[in-house]
Queue: 2 jobs
Job 1
Amino acid sequence: MTTQPRRGNRDLIKAMNRNLILNTLRGHGPMSRSQLTDFSGLSVGAVSQITSALIAENWIKEDGEGDYTGGRRQMMLRLNPTAGYVVGIKLMERRVVCVLTDLETTPLAYLERPLPNVQSPESVMNGLKGIIEGILAASGVSRSHVVGVGIGLAGVIDYDRGIVHYSPYFHWRDVPLADLLSAEIGLPVYIENDVNALTLTEQLFGAGHEVANFVVVTVGRGIGMGMVFNHQRYQGTRGGAGELGHITVETNGPPCDCGKFGCLEAMAADPAVLRYVEQALAQATPSRLRSPVTLQRVVDAAREGDELARTALARSGHYLGMGLATVINLLSPSLIVLSGEGVIAGDYRLQSMKETLHEHTFDGLLDNVRVVVKLADEQLWARGAAGLVIGKVFESPLLTPALAN
Ligand SMILES: [Zn+2]
């Protein structure tokens, strides 16, 4: 978005000014017309004209009078969150979870379904089509009010071109999933690496709002990272950036899903914790845990004072700290959002993570980093995917007027 559009294309300038007004209201909450004029640098006449059009098209609405600040009270304007609806999907190895949200990613309906065992693009697409139709039927929202569908999935995803370059779960290579599904369902489809989708939502609505440099690190079945530099998401060449889980932390470590050895993920993700506990139990290490273990059981046992459970989580935290120290040393973000299902381990993992961070971070860099811990359940992941569509709506200077009621 730019506030200084080139001269010469009136429609584009108009569209950009609309976009500026919409983004200002999205980013700063309700404002009066005169506050919008001051903030945007547009003329009084332009703000009046644009806001009238946006109200007529249902994008924004009048929302009571503002505080008295001298002169006459002014009507406040706010974004209309139900000007359009969005479907967000987290596509997993064997399951799909789906939310329908408004334009502020407030969830209005939620659905989850298993995926068929055959994981060809066609069969996965059928599963996606079914759940999208299911959630529209369940919510009563008509298709014409849906702005688009966002899908987050693990792997190397080209967001701009809508191509799955590599999916570790489905073993796909170069599948143009967005176009294929869009043709099936008649709605725009945006796909992105699931961690990048979560990062976008943090940027739009979460802790990363207006933060220039931050990263989102997720810990769960794997370890992933999304990055924002100078307010722009960074995805690397063909979407391959952020594979924090596959930096080497132990050269003689155990094998990783990626085919290498000693990756951070193989040492610190949830399956690594479980594997460590299972191996210790197999060697008759005293513990109240019994095979097979889950992360929740390990966390419960740690809470009850179980040494093995505490050691397994602290060990994971230690390696996580090594990984994050590398992130800080390389990128110096001002914020790290630590998220994912693995966050349920709380301080049993985070305490040793913090200690290792202090040990391995370059002098002084850690002082400027805020760490926010945020549990990502499946619904939050799906809302992250909804954020892909919303980001597109606010990013584009060419908003579709078809959304007006
Ligand atoms: Zn790996």
Job 2
Amino acid sequence: MVAESSCAAQIAQLRAQGYVVLPRFVPREALVELNEVARVQLDRRETPLEFEADLQYPGAPPSRSAAGGGTVRRLLDAYARDAAFAAWGTAPSVREWMEAYFAEPVLMSRAHHNCLMTKHPRYGSLTNWHRDSRYWSFDQENLVSVWIALGEESNANGGLWFVPGSHRMVFDPEKFDQAKFFRSDLAQNNEIIDTALSPTLAAGDAVFFHSNTLHSANQNLTDRVKFSLVYTYHGRSNPPKPGTRSASKPEVAL
Ligand SMILES: O=C(O)CCC(=O)C(=O)O
């Protein structure tokens, strides 16, 4: 159970900053199990997978047949992969937090995030500045993602960067490129990007962030794969728009 006062303070921080770190969110034993399952599933290359070469973000191998072309970016559909992953997607601590934030019953999307993100040394790509809601279709751009670090995360291994307060900023469409990345060739955008922070996460820490918070991540310059479990939530009164990718998979009521 989440202590009421800390939950309220975390929610206030997410509303103000667009993200909040929850230290020691996953206890040690559960973390050991999540790491074991993650490594076994990556070793066995259990499908469904998304490859770096398919996405072509900066630093990715040019094709699946090129050197490093088999580098996995995401183990998709974390919820269906293993009971340990599913349990954290629907954990009581997540439900309590999300219900307090949305002030109504909450659903987990299986169409967005719902994955085990991996970032590999050498062939793992960097992700430019973006808002997750760029491709998501809901009446209100008000969703929250939970990013659980299965190991330590920092800029050195491609940890996330966030622009504090950016979830409330209003931008002209031309501030984004055709792929809806926030353009870093514009001086005004750079003033905003320059305010970004990269929280260092310990294994088991989580970062909760708003779907409109600008974020990015560099490449992994260490020699170890980084693993993060990521899910996204929204309130019941804000369902995905019918016929869109956001509505393409049944959701999970918490
Ligand atoms: O780990 C990364 O490269 C960033 C991932 C990310 O921002 C996303 O999938 O939306």
